[in-house]
């Protein structure tokens, strides 16, 4: 057999690092000299227990492992290597005088990649060592490349998500600008809703979705004629019917994307004017037929609307607004949500002050 001459070197300028674990000094010496002559960096251990310690510190590219050894035999050593996260991927070649088929099968079964029977031939050992180190290096390169690609995908996904959130916030504020001079209502509402969701025990990821979905609750207003949306006086019945359609318009606008964020935004748009007792619109949903997100936004939206000044009304004082919410428990609003909102009023007022209308 002719020994291959195209040995591949790693980035250290050497073809690889090999740990030889064998209790026979003659075998260790012979293997060590043979491999060092080919440029490999060698470390040795007289038994499996010491071999495990060296493997963790030496970080070899390959382990040549005898089976019949004192303290810890080769089979147990291989199993221990494969159970350790730091050493489980290191290729193991058994080199043993045991040539029974059952021993060879057992060696492969516990994680060995190859099996060489003693007495070994120099050409065979070097050829198999080179092959397995090459495969090991290819595997590490693939893992590194995969990690780089995953990081790039993650970064790109994050950028796309941020862009989507910016678009949603801009669209939400655009809808508010039609009947709100500053559009700060949607900013406050986002913070109100996320804080209230947290108080209600919603998972963190759901609170984040609610924070970003809530600005879209009134996006359907862009489909309402100005003569109705901006009318200073009371709306006629036919005008009120058109005004109510902003929830279905909003849901339709948001129905073209099936991401979790847009699904929640659609529910918020469609449900935030439903009432706990079934007297709301557009579908007269009752109780828990209304999405939790819709029920949360209903309380936050009414609170901010009442405590904000508009061209057609003065801002209500806090105590009067809280009485209104209390009176609406289990009718307009779910009582549990009103109670949770009342418990976080100090936080709500801090948010109002931070994002007040200019």
Could you explain how this protein is built, in words?
- By secondary structure, this protein is an alpha/beta fold.
- It has two domains: 17-147, Response regulator (Rossmann fold, 3-Layer(aba) Sandwich); 178-354, Hypothetical protein af1432.
- It is built from 15 helices and five strands.
- It has helices at residues 25-37, 48-58, 74-83, 101-109, 122-177, 184-199, 204-213, 226-229, 237-244, 246-253, 260-271, 292-306, 318-327, 335-343, 345-354; strands at 17-21, 41-45, 62-65, 92-96, 114-117.
- Strands 2-1-3-4-5 form a five-stranded parallel sheet, with helices on both faces.
- Mean pLDDT is 88; it is low at 1-13.
Secondary structure layout:
Blueprint: E1 17-21, H1 25-37, E2 41-45, H2 48-58, E3 62-65, H3 74-83, E4 92-96, H4 101-109, E5 114-117, H5 122-177, H6 184-199, H7 204-213, H8 226-229, H9 237-244, H10 246-253, H11 260-271, H12 292-306, H13 318-327, H14 335-343, H15 345-354
Parallel strand pairs: 1-2, 1-3, 3-4, 4-5
Helix pairs in contact: 2-3, 5-6, 6-7, 6-12, 6-15, 7-11, 10-11, 11-12
Secondary-structure element pattern, one letter each: EHEHEHEHEHHHHHHHHHHH
Strand content: 5-15%
**β-strand number:** 5
CATH class of the largest domain: Mainly Alpha
Using brief descriptors, characterize the structure shown.
single chain, 358 residues, alpha/beta, Rossmann fold, Hypothetical protein af1432, 5-stranded parallel β-sheet, 56% helix, 6% strand, disordered N terminus
